[in-house]
C-alpha cells in the first residue's frame, strides 16, 4: 500500500471519529440529534471496518470502543487519587439552617453563596484523564479503593473519551439509568424469566459491573458529572464555574443546577423541587447543597466521612398508606394468572395510584396481604406501584384472605401450578383471555407493530368471529372491517395497509411476536442474528441454541417445545402463506436468486459482464456460458448473439435489461 492511501485512510478514520463523537454529544448530552440511528450506525460500521482492516490506526479513545470490547476476567482494584467521600444527609429545613450556621461560623462570614444540585440516584464513579485521554474509570468502592470499570464506562456515550485539555484531571459523577429504560428492562427481564430490579439505581449498578462490556452497552446507562476529584494547574475559583468548564469540555452536566445567595435562597428553591422531581426522566433522591467558593471549601475541609462544605437534603421516601379494596385476577398470553391489588386511590410520586401488580400468590403470602388491609405503597423507580408492607396494627378482623381460584376466571377451565414455578396457569390454550393477549402481543410495537389496531378493535374482531388468532388478521377484508363499530372507510383502509406493512418486519420482530415463553426482545434479536431465518431456528437443537451467548437452557427448551407443537407450526405456516417475511433482510437478499441459472448475452448498459455476474452470484444465482433446458433466464442486452436464438428454440425465458434490473434491484 502506498503512503498516499495510508494517509487517506487515516484521514477518513479521524474524520469518522470526529463525526461520531459530535453526534454522541448531540444525542446524549444535548438531547438534540441531527441524524437518524441508521445514519449513525453506518458511520460506526465504517469506522469499525477501517480499524479492523488497518489495526495500526486503532486507538483506546476511538468511539468504536463504545460498543463494548472483549469479556473481562474480573475487575482490578484502583486506589483513588483523592478519597471518594459521601455526604451527610438531612431530612428537614431546620437541619439545613444548622448546616448553614456551621459553615458561616467556621468561615467567619455571613456572606456565603451556595450551589443547589439534584442528587441523582445512581452510583458514583471517578473518571481519570491523562494527556487529554480517558485512561481509567472506577466505582467508588469503599471510598479509598474501587473497581476498574474503564471498559464498561466507555460504553456510556456521553462520557468523552478524548478532551481538549492535556493536564491530569479526575472528574466525579453519578451513573444512572432513566426511568423509561428501567421500566423497559424490567419488562423484558420478566419475559425472559430473569429477576427484576427493585429500582433504577440497582439496575445501573448491575449494568456497570458486567464482565461483558457489550451487556453494559445494552443497558443504555448515562451519567451526570458533578465535580472534580483532582485537577492540576487550575485557576477556576468556584464550584459553579468548574461545572461550566466541565460542560464546555464536553461533559454532561445537569441543567438544573443553580447558584443561590445564602440559605434563604436555597430553602425557597427546595420547595419547587417537591413536584418537579417527578417530571424528570431520571430519579433523584434529594438535593445537594454545596458551598460555591473553592477557597471556602478548602478552609472548611472534610470530616473522616464527608465534606463540611456540602450536605444532602434527602426527600422523604414517597410512600403512602392506603387500603386494598380487592384483589383481581388477569390472565396473560401464556395463561399465567396475575393477581393485582385494587387500591383506594392515593397520590404517590406525582400521580394517582389505583392498582399494584402482586405478581403471584407467593408474594401475597410472603407479604401476608389480605383484602381490606391497610398497606404502605410506593413506586419503584418513581413509576411502578408496589405494596411494601401491611400495616398490621390497622387490622380489625374484617380482612379476608385471598385465595387463588381453582378455575380460570375467564374460561372456567382448570388452573395448574407446576413444581418449582411460582406462576399458576390456565391450561386451556384456547382460553379467550390468552387468545386476546397473544394477539395484542403480536400486534404490539416491538412485535409486528400493526399501527392503529387497538384493544377495542381486537375485542370486536374476536366477538364477531372475524379472527380466532393473529394469523387471521392477514385475511381480513375491507367489507368486514368497514362495518365494525367506530370504523369508517378511512380507518378500515389504514388498518389494512398497516396489516400489509407488517409483513415485512425484521425477523427479530416476528420471533418476538410469536410469544415463545422466555423470549423477550433481546433474545429474539440474538436468535435472528444467529439463524437469519425462521426455518433454521425451527430446526435448531437444544445444544445449538444454548451455544449462542445469552440463550440459556430455559429459553432453548422453550423454543424447541414451541416448534414441536403442531398448532404452532400450523400458525407459522399460515403467516408464511399470507406473505409474512420469514427471513432476515440480508438472508432474503442473498437467496433472492437461489438455484436460478442465468445466461448473459449482448451488451448491458448499466453493468459490465463481470459486474452482472457478481451481482447474480451474490444473490445466490449461477451464471453459465451456454443456454440449456435448465437455464432459467437469458438476459438479452444490445446486439445479442446466437444464445438468444437458442433460448427461443428451447423455450427459455428471455428478459431484457430493465426486467433484469427490476428483478435484482430495490430501486
Ligand atoms: S457531591 C464528597 N453531587 O451522592 C461527596 N454527589 O452520598 C461529593 N450524588 O457519593 C458528592 N448526585 O454518588 C454530589 N450532584 C451531586 C450528586 C451526588 C448524586 C451521590 C454521589 C455521592 C453520594 C453522596
Keywords:
667 residues; alpha+beta; Helix Hairpins; D-amino Acid Aminotransferase, Chain A, domain 1; OB fold (Dihydrolipoamide Acetyltransferase, E2P); five-stranded mixed beta sheet; five-stranded antiparallel beta sheet; 25 helices; 22 strands; 20% strand; flat; binds 2-(butylsulfanyl)adenosine
Query: What is the CATH superfamily classification of the largest domain?
Result: DNA ligase/mRNA capping enzyme
What hetero molecules are in the model?
Answer: 2-(butylsulfanyl)adenosine
In the CATH hierarchy, what is the class of the largest domain?
A: Alpha Beta
**Could you say what the CATH topology of the largest domain is called?**
D-amino Acid Aminotransferase, Chain A, domain 1
The second-level CATH architecture of the largest domain is 2-Layer Sandwich
Q: Which whole number gives the mean pLDDT?
A: 93
Class by helix and strand content? alpha+beta
Percentage of β-strand residues:
15-25%
Helix content: 25-40%
Shape: flat
Strand order of the largest sheet: 2-11-10-3-9
Total count of domains: 5
Number of helices: 25
Largest sheet: 5 strands, mixed
**Could you give the count of β-strands?**
22
Amino acid at each position: 500500500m502506498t503512503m498516499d492511501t495510508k494517509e487517506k485512510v487515516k484521514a477518513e478514520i479521524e474524520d469518522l471519529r470526529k463525526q461520531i463523537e459530535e453526534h454522541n454529544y448531540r444525542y446524549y448530552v444535548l438531547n438534540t440529534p441531527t441524524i437518524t440511528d441508521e445514519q449513525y450506525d453506518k458511520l460506526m460500521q465504517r469506522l469499525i471496518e477501517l480499524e479492523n482492516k488497518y489495526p495500526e490506526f486503532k486507538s483506546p479513545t476511538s468511539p468504536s470502543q463504545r460498543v463494548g470490547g472483549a469479556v473481562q476476567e474480573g475487575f482490578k482494584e484502583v486506589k483513588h487519587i483523592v478519597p471518594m467521600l459521601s455526604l451527610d444527609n438531612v431530612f428537614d429545613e431546620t437541619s439545613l439552617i444548622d448546616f448553614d450556621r456551621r459553615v458561616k461560623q467556621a468561615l467567619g462570614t455571613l456572606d456565603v453563596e451556595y450551589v443547589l444540585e439534584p442528587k441523582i440516584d445512581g452510583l458514583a464513579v471517578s473518571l481519570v484523564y491523562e494527556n487529554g485521554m480517558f485512561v481509567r474509570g472506577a466505582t467508588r468502592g469503599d471510598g479509598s479503593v474501587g473497581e476498574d470499570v474503564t471498559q464498561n464506562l466507555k460504553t456510556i456515550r456521553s462520557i468523552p473519551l478524548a478532551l481538549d485539555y492535556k493536564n491530569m484531571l479526575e472528574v466525579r459523577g453519578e451513573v444512572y439509568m432513566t426511568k423509561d429504560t428501567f421500566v423497559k428492562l424490567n419488562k423484558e427481564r420478566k419475559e425472559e424469566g430473569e429477576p427484576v430490579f427493585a429500582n433504577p439505581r440497582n439496575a445501573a449498578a448491575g449494568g456497570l459491573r458486567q464482565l461483558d462490556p457489550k451487556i453494559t452497552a445494552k443497558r443504555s446507562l448515562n451519567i451526570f458529572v458533578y465535580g472534580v476529584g483532582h485537577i492540576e494547574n487550575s485557576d477556576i475559583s468556584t464550584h459553579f464555574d468548574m461545572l461550566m468548564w466541565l460542560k464546555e469540555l464536553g461533559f454532561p452536566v445537569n441543567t438544573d443546577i443553580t447558584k443561590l445567595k445564602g440559605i434563604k435562597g436555597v430553602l425557597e428553591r427546595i420547595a419547587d423541587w417537591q413536584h418537579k422531581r417527578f417530571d424528570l426522566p431520571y430519579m433523584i433522591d434529594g438535593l445537594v447543597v454545596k458551598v460555591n467558593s473553592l477557597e471556602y471549601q478548602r478552609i472548611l475541609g472534610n470530616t473522616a466521612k464527608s465534606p463540611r462544605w456540602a450536605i444532602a437534603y434527602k426527600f422523604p421516601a414517597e410512600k403512602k398508606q392506603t387500603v386494598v379494596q380487592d384483589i383481581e385476577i388477569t390472565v396473560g398470553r401464556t395463561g399465567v394468572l396475575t393477581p393485582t391489588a385494587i387500591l383506594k386511590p392515593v397520590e404517590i410520586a406525582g400521580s394517582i395510584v389505583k392498582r399494584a401488580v402482586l405478581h403471584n400468590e407467593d408474594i401475597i403470602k410472603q407479604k401476608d396481604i389480605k383484602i381490606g388491609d391497610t398497606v404502605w405503597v410506593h413506586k419503584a423507580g418513581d413509576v411502578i406501584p408496589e405494596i411494601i408492607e401491611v400495616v398490621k396494627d390497622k387490622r380489625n378482623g374484617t380482612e379476608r384472605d385471598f385465595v387463588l381460584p381453582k378455575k380460570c376466571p375467564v374460561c372456567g377451565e382448570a388452573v395448574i401450578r407446576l413444581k418449582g414455578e411460582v406462576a399458576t396457569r390456565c391450561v386451556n390454550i384456547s382460553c379467550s383471555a390468552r387468545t386476546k393477549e397473544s394477539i395484542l402481543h403480536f400486534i404490539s410495537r416491538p412485535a409486528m407493530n400493526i399501527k392503529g389496531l387497538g384493544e377495542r378493535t381486537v375485542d370486536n374482531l374476536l366477538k364477531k368471529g372475524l379472527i380466532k388468532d393473529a394469523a387471521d388478521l392477514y385475511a381480513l377484508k375491507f367489507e368486514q372491517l368497514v362495518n365494525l363499530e367506530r370504523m369508517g372507510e378511512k380507518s378500515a383502509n389504514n388498518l389494512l395497509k398497516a396489516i400489509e406493512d407488517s409483513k415485512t418486519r425484521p425477523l427479530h420482530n416476528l420471533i418476538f411476536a410469536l410469544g415463545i415463553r422466555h423470549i423477550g426482545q433481546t433474545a429474539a434479536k440474538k436468535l435472528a442474528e444467529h439463524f437469519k431465518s425462521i426455518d433454521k431456528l425451527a430446526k435448531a437443537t437444544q445444544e445449538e441454541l444454548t451455544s449462542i451467548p445469552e440463550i440459556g437452557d430455559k429459553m432453548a427448551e422453550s423454543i424447541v417445545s414451541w416448534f414441536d407443537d403442531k398448532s404452532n407450526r400450523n400458525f407459522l405456516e399460515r403467516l408464511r402463506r399470507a406473505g409474512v417475511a420469514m427471513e432476515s433482510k440480508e438472508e432474503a437478499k442473498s437467496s433472492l436468486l437461489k438455484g436460478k441459472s442465468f445466461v448473459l448475452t449482448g451488451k448491458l448498459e448499466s453493468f459490465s459482464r463481470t459486474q452482472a455476474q457478481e451481482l447474480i452470484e451474490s444473490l445466490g444465482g449461477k451464471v453459465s456460458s451456454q443456454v440449456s433446458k435448465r437455464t432459467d433466464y437469458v438476459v438479452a442486452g444490445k446486439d445479442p448473439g446466437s444464445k438468444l436464438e437458442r433460448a427461443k428454440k428451447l423455450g427459455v425465458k428471455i428478459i431484457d435489461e430493465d426486467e433484469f434490473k427490476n428483478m435484482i434491484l430495490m430501486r
